[in-house]
Amino acid sequence: MAKQEVQNGNLNESIKSRAGLDLGLVFGIPVTSSLTIQPELHFLQKGYKLEDLSDETISTLNYIELPVTLKLNFGENTTNVFVQFGPSIGYMIDGSLKYGDIKEDIVSSDYERLELGGLLSAGVRLGKLAVDVRYLLGITGTIKDGSDRKIYNRGLGAGVSLYF
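The structure corresponding to this sequence follows.
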């Protein structure tokens, strides 16, 4: 569930969360039995939804994102509870805005392509299967409009991972 947070700006509409796709590859580098360095590579959709009386606007921003986290494992190697946290860097590859039945590509020069952020996650691993919940926090703004208004990506997701 992606959302954008506006700071130093006035919006008459309420920004709502929107569902988006998150596909990723994860690689764990064990440091100790309870600590893993975990680089990840994701295709991730971010954006927002606005609803007013006449129409709905949906923003879809497609990112390639690389988080590198520290993962703390509590329990055995293949059956455990874990938390992970760390920085991420994302690159917006494209995006679109949909107003009712009209869809248009965004003008990439109006957006910051590079995003720095952070990730916090908690989950459970049972053998080759893991389930986690994560919070994504964009630290750098997403839009370049020359005003003092700042817009940041936020996200809350749930995932299922299969270990090989």
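The chain has no helices and eleven strands.
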